[in-house]
Amino acid sequence: MATYSAPLREISFVLNEVLKAGRLAETVPAFSDATPEVMMEMIEAAAKFSEKELFPLNASGDIEGCTRHADNTVSVPKGFTEAFKAYSANGFVGICNPTEYGGLGLPYTLWKVVEEMVCSGNVAFALYPGLTGGCFEAILANGSEEQKNIFLPKLSSGQWTGTMLLTEPQAGTDLAAVKTKAIPQADGTYKLEGGKIFITSGEHEMAENIVHFALARIEGAVPGVKGLSTFVVPKYLVNADGSLGARNPIFCSAIEHKMGIHGSVTAVMNLDGAIGTIVGKPNEGIMNMFVMMNLARIMVGFQGLGQMELATQNAVRYALERKQPKPIIDFPDVRRMILQMKALTEGARVMAYETALYVDYAHHHPDAAVREEANDWVELNTPLVKAFCTDGAVDMGSTAIQVYGGHGFIAEHGIEQILRDSKILCLYEGTNGIQAMDLVRRKLFLNDGRAAKRFFALVQAAANGAGPEYAFIAEPLKKALGDLEFTTRWIHETFRSKPDEASFGCCDYLKAFSLVYLGYNWLRMAQAANSSGDEAFKATKLTTARYFASKLLTQVTPLCETVKSGAGDFMSLTAAQLAA
To answer: What is the DSSP letter of 553?
Structure first.
């Protein structure tokens, strides 16, 4: 059977020795109490919860799944409700929410570290508090004071949960096709009519109420995304005194039967005149929704990171235990797979944690210049974290099965579940192809490419400043960085006149960019590890850094060549010809 042990030594190393997260408490007054000791205390509590309470429900929840009943209610797997109440009671739901709305007021970074462990322990369970946090952020950013006071404290406590109602059968990536309509009422509310699909946590009875953050078109609004608005639509209407009122006519008509994440409810929701209140101004819904979606994309990246860790540590454990007749970890190909899993998972952790730190600085640092630069990093990193970590989860799940051999294909070992649970991560909150297009078509061009230029300068300075003992990674990093910069210039020059040519290799470009980022991370990890008094830890880190430098960083050059080869005549065939 699979096991999970939170990688506390690795988490502390990345936070405190590589990224120096203690600077948050030193430079951001809002986080003056969030010292490394306080952060690690909360992390250790969440680690214990993930190991002892959530992971034991992972396999059973996958087998049992969720059930819709004739009265439109949905039951979740056995143990989930009790675990959610305990999770809420521990304060994990509102870790980074402002104290005035019932949260703990701690850094977003801490929430994401906790989320990684929760997603390793039980990624299906993690979606219930995860979407609740996204709903909280959306209302906090754009809601009225009345909406904030009504909904945010209950979302922080976990007494109520949240969802995001976007997708419709005809409107996935193309939100301009949303048909759900909002009909104005005399009292200032709206009646919403329509249907939504793929709604995570859309119906359950783990909490007293469910707050749906919905995208709809006010009757008579202009077509396209410019005519969309956002609404809060609670499962139960809320009375003036905060108590629950009548059942709102928003119902689950079906639940999806999926490849994975069986413990998470994925609902088809019907709005039959459900009462909602508008969030923000009319026709600004797409901007309001992206507040939630951008942070949700980082959340999904952390889901991927959690699954990468789960796959990697189980592959390592099995390779140590399995003898044929010697431990299979001593066979070269298995050793290669283990080193590759460690190199990618540990490198991705630095990228994900650093992105979370930039979110904290962008939102809370007192210096406007620091906030601006941090926001640049968040914009640039979001598609990288979402796509690279989720593709990595699928790759690590597949590699873990390969390490196990035939036993990995058998359900009782719990490894094939990682692959099944992880594939959705590459699809929701914008497919990974959409993330690559976002990087190439938008993020590279923001503010005249300022974010990418800052990244290139920082990595170049780090590689140039590395001592001779780090030449094994600094030199290939310089080569990879040079190829990435040249390819970025090619994209800039080509995109304006030949967008298809520049976009055809966007997924390869995102992978190349991510590998350069991980090369920068491994240089920093090698430097930090050299200061460690733990000789075994140091040796493992340096060996893994050498593996990344020689076997993975070298992939950047051919990836860049593929990007620059463009679309050629591949876009010239008609759809009918291609289908023939």
So the answer is: G
C-alpha of 313 from chain center: 20
Dmax of the chain from CA atoms?
A: 78
161-283 — its CATH code? 2.40.110.20
Does this model's pTM top 0.90? My answer is yes
Q: Cα dist. 298→91, 115, 294 in Å?
A: 21, 11, 7
Active site (catalytic) residues: 429
How far is CA 441 from each of CA 182, 335, 427, 436, rounded to the nearest angstrom? 32, 39, 19, 8
- Distance between CA atoms of 402 and 405, rounded to whole angstroms? 5
Question: Which one, of 245, 234, 98, lies nearest residue 160 by Cα?
Answer: 234
Measured from the Cβ of residue 458, the count of other Cβ atoms closer than 10 Å reads 12
| Cis peptide preceding 325, ω within 30 of 0 | yes
Alpha helices in 65-144 (DSSP H): 80-89, 108-142
- Which string of DSSP letters, residue by residue, matches 381-441? HHHHHHHHHHHHHHHHHHHHHHHHGGGGGSGGGS-HHHHHHHHGGGTTTS-HHHHHHHIII
Q: Which residue has the tokens 């620091």?
A: 370
The arithmetic mean of pLDDT across residues 418-426, rounded, is 98
Find the angle CA(299)-CA(401)-CA(57) to the nearest 5 degrees.
55
pLDDT of residue 479: 98
Q: Which amino acid is at 220?
A: G
The letter for the amino acid at 485 is E
238's tokens: 């809320």
Whether the Cβ atoms of residue 200 and residue 126 lie closer than 8 Å to each other: no
240 CB-contact burial (10 Å; exposed 0-12 / middle 13-18 / buried 19+): exposed
Residue spans per domain, the chain: 161-283, 432-571
Which string of DSSP letters, residue by residue, matches 39-63?
HHHHHHHHHHHIIIIIGGGHHHHHH
pLDDT at 261: 98
Measured between alpha carbons, how far is 354 from 401 in angstroms, rounded to an integer? 30
Please give the Cα distance from 271 to 183 (Å, whole number).
Answer: 12
Nearest CA-CA partner of 14 in 260, 305, 232: 305
Q: By CB neighbour count within 10 A (0-12 exposed, 13-18 middle, 19+ buried), where does 431 fall?
A: middle
* Confidence at 290, pLDDT banded by 50, 70, 90: confident
Written as one letter, the residue type at 348 is A
Does the pLDDT of residue 41 top 80, yes or no? yes
pLDDT-derived band at 236 (thresholds 50, 70, 90) equals very high
Q: How far apart are CA 385 and CA 407, in angstroms?
A: 31
Distance of CA 137 to CAs 22, 134, 140, 151, 292, Å? 25, 5, 5, 11, 6
Alpha helices in 143-217 (DSSP H): 145-157
Interatomic CA distance for residues 463 and 451, integer angstroms: 19
Q: Hey, how many other C-beta atoms are within 10 angstroms of the C-beta on 9?
A: 10
Q: Is the pLDDT of residue 501 over 90?
A: yes
